[in-house]
Structure formats: structure tokens, C-alpha cells
């Protein structure tokens, strides 16, 4: 049992929670809570940390996960778990998991030999972890085939993002790209129609036909899409807004367009 | 200038930030930041608190608001503003504003002589401040006519809710009701069709016709709608979800149904 917050393992966990660089160097990230613990694929589970209380309560689950994955396990005191955790009231379980997304392979395939009709979200400079996580979760529900992010988007392995994904982080293909312009050009060459969600949209979001290969561009929370990205889209679409609302939250705007595409594709 | 965090005025502001009871006793709430400051109607503005830096930067705006409203104004040191603020990096302006929503009057009118075709959101035990604020903001954009909340929903005057509304708090009618059952019965008597968003929905959310008077019920983040509320709905609707997603975030689910109603009503 680890009882001291100055333990080297504890310091490493805090680093992994706080620092993107630490996560990327080790190619791992942290998950917290029962729900995420249940969702972690065993072959990606490297380490389990539990409190005594959690272990007693969920012994069968913990032992099964521990055995199947063959990973390391340690017990932390409540104080140490509180110190390590990203939440105010930790649930008592934390995992170290490998970063291992099929995003790059997905993108290459999506462009050349897509298995389904592509429905792509391209996120440009999205900064809020809650929005990013919510978009991942909602994207899975809306049958989005994958997510492309500009390299200056928030880190998807940020603990707040992970928490908001409710497990979708393990299932939705995503990829960071250095050169958004280049990817957009490739998408267009491969017959994917590109839509910029934009306050200056010419068409309402429900006017185009999304049953063909489609990609939506969604921009930063405060500033919207950067001009040089928006300009590359085939069509600007807008979400009509009543009242005096000037803009929608980025995750809300993404939801509206993703579910409209999903709706059309079900009919 | 207030320079001490032990000043009685400062203590009161902290109480107003932290305690629903303090807000309800005084019938006021706090707003923070430039955007909300611009949005506060002058006739509801009671007190302005600014840092010297903010005052210098936005002198014309502050003076105009101060003069038009005839309210009190005080300068706080940065330390005091930090102490009072709900955010880590305060923008330097905080207001005390009257609680004054036309929700009760709206509901009475909506049931008997609605001005438009009602589009009502009924929120049952919604707990997350961010979700509540986002629903208010999105509801205004989707032309929702008003929001009904069970009395155990999160306080709309919670600073996190206020922040997420981006000003919609001043424009969307809302009302807390003790007896949700009774209000639902009244809505039905007045010809408003009621829809429960529910995992056990028989119809997809885009199948009903929402161009007639409609009300959507949305439940708690973790548990969904309470049975006794869901059971009163005319129709259970579901949002089809792909992948392994078990549920959507409450604000996301609300967005999907609100914007579908809005979409139908535009056509």
C-alpha cells in the first residue's frame, strides 16, 4: 500500500495527470472512476490503483480486470488517492492506460477505401476539455466515422476530456494533424463534401444532403473557425438561432450538425 | 476602494456566490465578466464591483451602465476580486442583479393564452450547473418558449449556471414548480403534447410532429427521468445512438430534441 504523497510513483501519476508532455513521453494516460474502469480494454490496461474501500466494494470486478490484463495493481490510501485524483471526490479507482488510437490508420483508409460513407468531424483549435470529451461521446452516438483535430486542439488525454467521453475515447478514431489545409485538400480529392459551420453560412444546416461522404468543420469556442480553414470548405452552413443568441457552445453546434446527418442517413 | 477580504461587503458577496439561501433571501444573484456585464438589463442592476484595471479599460461602458442604472459602484483590489470571484482568473467585473424572471406569469399565460405555439422544456432533477446553463442558452436559440424545472433542479442562479447561459438567463422564461405532476396535467388539459426523452422510447425523436404545442421532458444526468414523471408523458421518444454509447449528456439530449422541433417549425 502506498501511504505517502511523496512516493515516486505518486509523483509520476500527478505528472501524468497534469502534463501532456509526461503523457506523450510515456504514451499513456489516466482514467478515473468505476465507469471508465469498466470500459478500459484489458489489452490497454497497464496499471490499476485503488483505495481499500473501492477494492472491498468492487473486488470481483477489480480481480477480473487485474487477472485478464496481467497488469500491475497497487492500493493507495484515501489521502494519496485524493492527492493524485483530478476530481474533488475520487471514486477510488485510477488506471494507467496506453495511448493507442487507430486514428492515423483510420484516416488513411477513410480517404482511400472507406468502409462506410464517411462522416467526419474536423475540429479546429478547440480548447475546452469538456467540449472535446462531449463531442467524442456524441460523435460515437451519431455514427461519426472519425475525428480530425488541428494540432493546437486541447489534448484528448487531458483527464477532463477522458471523463467527459464516458468511454468513447476507446472507440472513436481520432487523429491530430499538423497541416489541416493538407488534409482538407485530400478529403476533397477523395470526394468528401466539406461543410464549415459558420455564422456567415449561406445554407441552414438542414438543407444539404449528408447521405454522401461528408465532413463538418467546427471551430474554437470563442472565435469560431479560422478563416484559412473555413475558406477551404465547399459550403458554409449556419444554425439558425432565435432570440438574441450570438453563438452556440461548440459541442452544442457540433451536436446539431452531427445528429442532422445521422437523421438523414437513417431515412 | 475595498482592500480587505474581511470587509462585511466582501463577506456578503462570497455568501451570495456560495449560498442559494443567501441569494433567495435577498432575491439577487451575481454575474461575472464583461459579457454578462454588457447583458445585464440596467433596471435589474443593483451593484457594480470592478477592479481598477477593468475600470480603466472599460471606463465608458462602466460609467454608462452606472449612470443608466443609478446603482452603487465600488472598486475592489485584485486580491479582493479574486477572493469574491467564482473563477480562477476573474475578468475584473462583478454585478449584483435582481432575481426577476417572468416565469410564473409566463406559465400561466402559456397554458391559457399562449402568444406562440408553445415549445416547453421540462427539466426533472437536473443537477449539473453547466448543463443547466447550456440548456438555457440553447433553448433561447431553438425558440423554446419557456422552461419548467422541478424544485430539486440545480439553482439557476448558481454562478456556474449564470456563466454558461451567456446572457440567456435574462431572456428565457423559467419557473420552478413544487408539483411537476400537476403542471404536466395542466399542460395536457390545454392541448400541449408531452414527450419524454427516454431510453425506452417507442418513437425516434424525429418522428413526431412538433409543429403543434409541445413539451419535452428531460431527466437527471445519471438516472434519466423519474418514472413518475416519464409515465405522465403522451409519448416516449428516443434518440437513436450508434456504437456502444449508453446515454447522451443531458444538455446534448435536450439540444437534439429542441433543434428538431425548431427545424420542423421552420419548414
Structure report:
Two copies of one chain form a homodimer. The mean pLDDT of chain A is 96. In chain A, strand 6 (146-150), helix 9 (159-165) and strand 7 form a beta-alpha-beta unit. Chain A contains twelve helices and eleven strands. Chain A has helices at 8-18, 20-26, 34-39, 52-57, 59-69, 78-84, 103-112, 129-141, 159-165, 180-189, 227-230, 250-266, and strands spanning 28-32, 45-51, 72-76, 93-98, 119-123, 146-150, 174-177, 193-197, 203-204, 214-218, 235-238. Chain A is α/β, with parallel strands linked by helices and 267 residues long. In chain A, the strands form two sheets. Chain A has a seven-stranded parallel β-sheet with strand order 7-6-5-10-8-11-9, with helices on both faces. A four-stranded mixed β-sheet of chain A has the order 1-4-2-3. Chain A folds into two domains: 8-98, 60s Ribosomal Protein L30, Chain: A (2-Layer Sandwich); 103-266, Alpha/beta knot, CATH 3.40.1280.10. Chain A is elongated, with a radius of gyration of 20 Å. In chain A, helix 8 packs parallel to helix 12 (250-266). Chains A and B meet through helix 8 and helix 12 of A and helix 8 and helix 12 of B.
- Bulk shape of chain A: elongated
Measured on Cα atoms, how large is the radius of gyration of chain A? 20 Å
Number of domains of chain A: 2
What is the CATH superfamily of the largest domain in chain A? SPOUT methyltransferase, trefoil knot domain
Number of strands of chain A: 11
Q: How many H/I helices of chain A?
A: 12
The portion of residues forming beta strands of chain A comes to 15-25%
Question: What is the name of the CATH architecture of the largest domain in chain A?
Answer: 3-Layer(aba) Sandwich
Considering residues with a beta carbon less than 8 A from a beta carbon on another chain, report the largest interface and each chain's count: A-B, 35 and 36 residues
Runs of chain A in which pLDDT lies below 50 for 5 or more consecutive residues are: none
Neighbour order of strands in the largest sheet of chain A: 7-6-5-10-8-11-9
Average pLDDT figure of chain A: 96
Biggest sheet details of chain A: 7 strands, parallel
The CATH topology of the largest domain in chain A corresponds to Alpha/beta knot
CATH class of the largest domain in chain A: Alpha Beta
- H/E topology pattern of chain A: HHEHEHHEHEHEHEHEHEEEHEH
Oligomer classification: homodimer
**Main structural class of chain A:** alpha/beta
